[in-house]
Amino acid sequence: MKNPAFRGSFGDNASLKELYSSVGDNNSRNIIKLVTKEPKYQPKQDCYILNFKGKSRFGSIKNMILIEPSKPNDYILMFCKNDSHEFHLEAVYPLSPLIAFGIVLSGFDFKLCCQ
User: Fold this and answer.
1) Distance CA 40, CA 43 (A)
2) With 70 as the cut, is the pLDDT of residue 89 above it?
3) Cβ–Cβ under 8 Å, residues 81 and 56
4) 44 DSSP 8-state letter
5) Which ranges in 1-115 belong to alpha helices (H)?
6) Domain-by-domain residue ranges, the chain?
7) What's the pTM value of the predicted model, to 2 decimals?
8) Please, are residues 37 and 67 in contact by the beta-carbon 8 Å criterion?
């Protein structure tokens, strides 16, 4: 059974072009665009800071917050480091726990050598 959220197969270039154009035009209700929340510069500490609402105890390159551009104060995914080998992951609708975990794991792939 085909998923009604996706029109056509993704094997042909026409469907991919339609998918990419719908993301850019924001004309698809089935696609949600998420962006990384930009940190704010704090001159007192001379660094950039994200507000993890008290859940992060360590700065890490792996820390991230994903938001919808239209709702910058509501996070969809929050991932932060708590200890040397402990992390905190929170995700809300429309992300399932499995999708949120996959997003976080894909971030580890590129950041394994960075500290």
Assistant:
1) 10
2) yes
3) yes
4) T
5) 13-25, 97-111
6) 32-111
7) 0.65
8) yes
